[in-house]
Specification:
With 311 residues, this protein is mainly alpha-helical. The protein has one domain.
Amino acid sequence: MENQFNGQRPPVNPGKRFWRIWSPFLINWGIGTLAGVVVMTAFMTVYLATHSMDMLLFYRDQDATMKVVEKAMEIVLRYTTQIQGITALVTIPVMAFLYYRDRKREKLNGIEPNKKASVIQYIPMLIMAGAVNIVLNSLIMIGELSNYSAEYQEITKAFYSAPLGMQILCLGVLVPIAEELVFRGLMYRRMREDTGVVMSVIYSAVVFGLFHGNMVQMIFGTLMGVMLAYVCEKYGSVAAPIAAHIMVNMVSIFITYFDAYGRMLTDIWRVGAVTVVCATLASSMLLLVRRINEKPDIQGEEEKFSDGFKS
């Protein structure tokens, strides 16, 4: 994704630049908010229609109104996984359209994309993603960070209380696809055109972390966002961070389902050993990922053109 234009880059209006970078995030946030409101409204409508006395109190008694709203919020929290899946399902085609439109625009503007890595090169990246996930979660457990965030505990319980199949479909597949199209496929790549690789990696990772809304997930999301943006850069395709994100979420789903962390916590040395082994594995895989040459072969293309002209 070597961002070199043929000629001078035209000036961009600051307002248009802001909208161009932030519109994917705002659209995704809007769809998620709308999905939550629809579920709440549907529940309140059904509930009040089947509870005539509560319906009268709903309009007359403020306490009764709050109780109905609280019940609606409980329903929304209970079906958080399903709502996330619906949001992702609606978001994916919108973001995919914007993503492919960006690629078409880059081609017209003479931007040479990074070379795409081969399928076999995805193996070390996937191993690295899974290992990094375990390391970060182990450090969170060792530091007992989850104890400082009731919101994190609540949302985690809601996510993993859904049926396993629903977790796999929504959290393991749909959500990673949607989030990677938003944050790496669009926001990161658009930032990169103006600020370069390093600042775009950091900025997009921080935004990704803040998007998760609580202290623990902010820390986890920011660090994971750095890895995912790096993967996007090295592999030359949004398919790479999507695959890595799916691996991260799948590892979390199955480790939680089988209560692997709960078993590890019975022995602090076991947690330490697992953390060291996974950190070593992640570092080893990173060395393999770093060897990937993602730079466009612009020089080679120029030499071919020059040879052809001489002949």
